[in-house]
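Justification of computing resources. Each target in the renewal requires a structure prediction run like the one illustrated here; the chain below, 83 residues long, is used simply to show the kind of job we budget for.
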Amino acid sequence: MANHKSAIKRVRSDETKRLRNKYQHKTTRNAVRNLRDITSKKDAEKELPAVFAMLDKLAKRNIIHKNKAANLKSGLQVKVNNL
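Resulting structure tokens:
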């Protein structure tokens, strides 16, 4: 366990950040999964910008790697174009 006051505070803030990152990552994964399940091109095109924004935000905050976000976005765009 941490001994210094600043280290104790760091443990608390790290746990808060971990939970927030976990929530945002899981929410984005669910949004990607839901987008992949959509069969209507019109609905998919409406959802696409929101999912792209979520992926960009995760990449900007280093929750996921920027290349992973780019690969996911590319795959989703191909899927929507093929509907």
